[in-house]
Structures are given as structure tokens and as C-alpha cells.
Specification:
Blueprint lengths: L3 E7 L2 H5 L11 E6 L3 E7 L2 H10 L8 E7 L4 H18 L3 E2 L16 H18 L7 H5 L2 H4 L8 H17 L6 E6 L6 H15 L12 E4 L3 H11 L10 E2 L1 H11 L3 E6 L20 H7 L1 E8 L13 H8 L4 E5 L10 H11 L20 H15 L20 E4 L2 E4 L11
Parallel strand pairs: 3-5, 6-10, 6-11, 7-8, 7-9, 9-10
Antiparallel strand pairs: 1-4, 2-3, 2-4, 12-13
Helix pairs in contact: 3-4, 7-8
Length: 434
């Protein structure tokens, strides 16, 4: 075997029979089977037997090309890792629709011997070669900055996230036939991976809805989001994932009004960023009732809420823990708190500094970080330096808080100060500001 080999052939019995005498025929490998528009990605230690099974699978009948990714240093942990990354990257590349189902517990994010080599160095080489051979369209840098990549339902999950996912699925299976509605509350600050878990859970629920042996067979399930940009992202994912449909995703007011009109309950409803739900009528946006959450609970058997009371933005969506508890009073419920910070690779000292800054307390700047932490007195200087970093390394971005003026009147609103002028809260083409 060569160090890395990417080998393509027709996906048929003749090609598969020819694998019998190959040195990698009983060795860990990663593979994908595809047509011009559909792909299935997997890993195996018995490639010939696995491909024979795929040939018998009716879903694979439309696929005509097999590509094997072979490396002399592959082991099972490495191939699981690379398989999962390929699924996420293929999804965000948007060339193919995926036939893959949800990953099993093997997709839990874990360390193994020489993981940085396989996860970064080798995977980067694999993806660059796939792009060179025109199997994929976009570079790694472009994919890693896509919103569809960040919300992929196939992401590797931490042990805490897997535990939460399993708890939610178990609650849904146990409570779906209850007479009273049930609420499962997910709490956690920004960066603890709440939305990623929600995406993975929803995909699994939709898969279970197609399985006749499941307690959730034929369930009518939805994800509700508050931003048009998030709705577009989820619908984009639905266009590329087998179990999902675009009409599985909606905004709260639209969902409530549809339920009122049909007078039918949904089965399981997941609400991302529930702290943005309305807490008073908004007749301009066709919401006549007093509270989004009360109405969602009225029209759902099970409600799964993602909630962060530190992200309340406006008076018509004013939430605190007391208000939430009052609405849930008397309703059977369960709570899970995600605590591990996944968005930042920083020391505890650094995260503590940011937590204190949020509470309007400024501590001495942390030292000995793995990255440069700087505070600028000029937005123009910061923007110039970030552009330079982006030119050198990619993925350098500037973000801003919600404190700037923005009206829904079709006009562009700018942040202007100190030789600095950029539009705030706008969408360019297909790219979401979020």
C-alpha cells in the first residue's frame, strides 16, 4: 500500500470481485459511493463484503461510482474520525445529497493515538486531493466558514452532548403518548453546543419517524427558529440530508397560526433560541396571542427548548427564569444544563475574564494564552489587522454586538466611526450574516 491512495472504480460486481486479492481488502479504509448528485460515505475493515451488501441495498442502486481512501497507517479510530469529517464536509460542499443516516455512539468526539495527524494533517491532504480530482467543489477554508457546516446534524459530539441527545430521544419515546404536554429544557451559555445537539436530535427523530418498529413512527415533528437566516440554513441542510424536508422547519408565529387554522397538534417541536420567543402580542407580524411559548405548548405533545437567559435582546421578547418557570408551572418537565465551552480554545482564566466582562467587571488581562488577545481603541485599526490575518490564514472575522441601529425598511445601516464604515446586520447574496 502507498502512504495515501485514492482509488476510484465502477460500483458493480466486477469491480468488487477484483478487490479480493488487494492488500487493503481486510484493512481499515474509508470510502464513498456516488452518482452525479447523491453520495454515501462509510468506513470498513472488510471492503469486499461491505460493498456486496451495498450492492444489495435498494437505496444504492442509483449510485455507480466507488472511491476508496487507503492509507497504510489507518486504524479504526482514524477511519471513524475521517468518515465523520467527510460526511460533514460533503454536506457543506453542497454538490451531493447525502444518503447517510445519523452516526452511532462511535461518533462521540474522543482522543486516540496521533489524532492530530489523522484529524488535521491527513484529512487536509485527503480533501485537497479530492478537490484536485474534482470529486468536491470547495476548499476546506470555504467549507469551515459555512453556516451549513456549523449546524450539520452529523457533527461529532462530546460525551456530554451524546448524553443529552440520548436523554432527549428517550424522553420523546417515553412521553409521546402522555395526555399532558411535556417540556424538555436545555440550558447553556453561548458556545456550549446547544444548536448542534438540536440539529443531531432532530435528524434522528425524523429517521425514527420512518421506522415502523419505533414508538415515534409517523410522528409529525418541527424545528422552530426565530431568524430568517437560521431558517434558510436549516432548509439548506434539509435539501442535502435524506431524512429532512424543508417544511420541517418554521418560525414560531407561522407555526402557531398554521396549527390554529388546522386545529391539529404537532408531535415533537424543538425550539432553538427560545429566549427570543415573543412575550407579548406583535400584530405587525401577525401574532395576536400573549406568549409564543404558551401557544407552542398548546399545539405540541412534546416541546424541547434551548434557552439562554443571557441572550435576551428586546422588550417584546423579555424573558427571565421566573417568567419561564411561571409558564412551565404544572407542566411535566425535565432540565439539562450544558456547561463545557466548545466554541473557544482558551484557558479557564481567559473564559473567566470574558464572563466577568459580560457582568461589567474588568479584570487584568489574562497572560500566557495560546493566542494573542488584544484590545483596540480604534475599530478601523482592528478591522485592518483582521483583514491582514484573513489574507494570511483565512477564517479571520470581525463580529459586532446587537447595539447598532437596524430597521426592517430595506435600507442599509452602517457602523461609522474613526475612518471606519461597514454595513451592520446585512446579508450578501447566499451568505448569512449569522
Amino acid at each position: 500500500m502507498k502512504t495515501l491512495e485514492i482509488k476510484s472504480m465502477a460500483f458493480n460486481k466486477t469491480s468488487i470481485d477484483s478487490l479480493y486479492s488487494q492488500p487493503y481488502s481486510n484493512y481499515p479504509i474509508v470510502y464513498f459511493i456516488n452518482s452525479n448528485t447523491i453520495v454515501y460515505i462509510g468506513e470498513t475493515v472488510a471492503v469486499r463484503n461491505r460493498m456486496k451488501n451495498h450492492l444489495k441495498n435498494p437505496e444504492r442502486k442509483s449510485l455507480d461510482k466507488l472511491t476508496l481512501i487507503i492509507h497504510e497507517k489507518f486504524n479504526r479510530s482514524a477511519t471513524y474520525n475521517i468518515e465523520t469529517k467527510l460526511i460533514n464536509y460533503f454536506l457543506a460542499d453542497e454538490r451531493y445529497k447525502l444518503q447517510n443516516k445519523s452516526q452511532t455512539a462511535n461518533s462521540v468526539s474522543h482522543n486516540y493515538y496521533e489524532k492530530p495527524f489523522y484529524n488535521e494533517e491527513l484529512f487536509n491532504e485527503i480533501w485537497d486531493q479530492l478537490k484536485l480530482k474534482d470529486y468536491v467543489t470547495h476548499s476546506r477554508e470555504v467549507i469551515e466558514n459555512k453556516d451549513i457546516f456549523k449546524l450539520s446534524p452529523f457533527k461529532e459530539l462530546s460525551a456530554d452532548q451524546i448524553d443529552l441527545k440520548d436523554k432527549i430521544i428517550d424522553v420523546c419515546q417515553t412521553r409521546i403518548k402522555d395526555e399532558k404536554p411535556f417540556v424538555f429544557l436545555i440550558k447553556g451559555e453561548a458556545g456550549t453546543g446547544k444548536s448542534v445537539v438540536l440539529s443531531a436530535v432532530f435528524n434522528r427523530l425524523k429517521e425514527l419517524a420512518t421506522e415502523k418498529s419505533s414508538d415515534l413512527h409517523n410522528n409529525n415533528n418541527y424545528i422552530l427558529v426565530n431568524h430568517n437566516e437560521m431558517l434558510k440554513t436549516y432548509q439548506k441542510i434539509a435539501g442535502k440530508v435524506k431524512a429532512l424536508k424543508k417544511n420541517n422547519f418554521d418560525k414560531p408565529t407561522s407555526f402557531i397560526n398554521k396549527r390554529k387554522k388546522s386545529n391539529k397538534k404537532a408531535d415533537i417541536v424543538l425550539v432553538d433560541e427560545a429566549h427570543l420567543l415573543l412575550t407579548k402580542p406583535d400584530r405587525f407580524n401577525n401574532f395576536e396571542e400573549n406568549n409564543h411559548l404558551e401557544e407552542i405548548m398548546k399545539y405540541s405533545k412534546i416541546v424541547i427548548l434551548v434557552f439562554d437567559d443571557k441572550q435576551v435582546l428586546k422588550m417584546k421578547s423579555y424573558w427571565d427564569i421566573d417568567k419561564l418557570n411561571n409558564i412551565l408551572k404544572g407542566t411535566p418537565s425535565e432540565e439539562y444544563v450544558l456547561k463545557n465551552q466548545l466554541r473557544m480554545r482558551a484557558s479557564h482564566e481567559m473564559i473567566h475574564w470574558i464572563d466577568q466582562f459580560i457582568e461589567k467587571r474588568i479584570l487584568p488581562l489574562p497572560s500566557e494564552e495560546e493566542f494573542k488577545f488584544k484590545i483596540f481603541d480604534s475599530a478601523a485599526k482592528m478591522y485592518k489587522e483582521i483583514r491582514q490575518k484573513n489574507k494570511e490564514f483565512g477564517l479571520a472575522r470581525m463580529v459586532s454586538t446587537f447595539d447598532y441601529i437596524h430597521k426592517k425598511d430595506g435600507k442599509t445601516y452602517y457602523i461609522e466611526e474613526d475612518h471606519y464604515k461597514l454595513p451592520w446586520n446585512t446579508t450578501e447574496g447566499d451568505t448569512s450574516w449569522a
